[in-house]
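--- STAGE predict ---
source: upstream dedup step, 1 unique chain passed
mode: sequence only
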Amino acid sequence: MASVLVPWAALTFDRRRLNLPRAIIFAIFAVGAVFGMNAMRIAIFLYIGIQVAADVPIGGSHSSFETLSLLVVVGLARVALQHPVFFR
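--- STAGE serialize ---
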């Protein structure tokens, strides 16, 4: 839910400064990146659980990685929105 709310809030607060059609398309890609990283996280933990040790993905490290991946994508999106292509 936060992966949708954070880009929406960024677009709402910077509405006057941003070129809105480009920023909305970028926000859609950012949300897609979060979901893509989430799918990668699930695949990695399935691999670890099957090949290495079954107790590693169960221990709660999956939540930490999910939060970290969300912060990375949101941080990169905020930095990318400073590029002049998104300004009016």
